[in-house]
């Protein structure tokens, strides 16, 4: 069957306290999860996924117009921002595949269709059992959150003091 050749993947590259993980769904019914950072389960997990769920996901890709969504998302992977890569490979005939991959920042510029597909993949794979963290389970996550908050405050203070210094310098030069 052609559906056996389907490959769907979702990769979340979280920054700060956001999770980093990947999900790969194979049309023959294998699901691979790989947890990297800020997730409940780190490392690889392999499970079976029902064919009906794969068919529903394929329908979601089709109904969203995924293949017609423009590839206009430029992502600087070195920037301190979370981003997602969503891709699908579909058989179009025996031995021929159609593949599309989009990488985008996790922000308000992401089209609703992409967010919806991402949510449906997470639902179909029940990824929460590997990804969702409670601060009680992972106390170091709270420490990371505090460290990030502290760094942001320090950056604000540094910026504010530089602005104040620049204002004082301007005042001195205008006298």
Give the topology, please.
Elements: E1 7-13, E2 20-26, E3 30-37, E4 43-48, H1 51-64, E5 83-93, E6 96-105, H2 112-125, H3 128-131, H4 139-174
Antiparallel strand pairs: 1-2, 1-5, 2-3, 3-4, 5-6
Helix pairs in contact: 1-2
Give Rg in angstroms. Answer: 22 Å
Strands ordered across the widest β-sheet: 4-3-2-1-5-6
Order of helices and strands: EEEEHEEHHH
Individual helix count: 4
CATH topology of the largest domain: Mago nashi protein
- Backbone shape: globular
Textual characterization of the structure:
By secondary structure, the protein is of the alpha+beta class. It contains 4 helices and 6 strands; from the N terminus they run E-E-E-E-H-E-E-H-H-H. It has 2 domains: 130 residues, Mago nashi (Mago nashi protein, 2-Layer Sandwich); 41 residues. The chain has a 6-stranded antiparallel sheet with strand order 4-3-2-1-5-6, with helices on one face. Helix 1 packs antiparallel against helix 2. The model has no long low-confidence stretch (mean pLDDT 81).
Keyphrases for this structure?
Mago nashi protein; 175 residues; alpha+beta; 6-stranded antiparallel sheet; 4 helices
Nutshell version of this structure?
The protein has 175 residues and is α+β, with helices and mostly antiparallel strands. It is built from four helices and six strands; from the N terminus they run E-E-E-E-H-E-E-H-H-H.
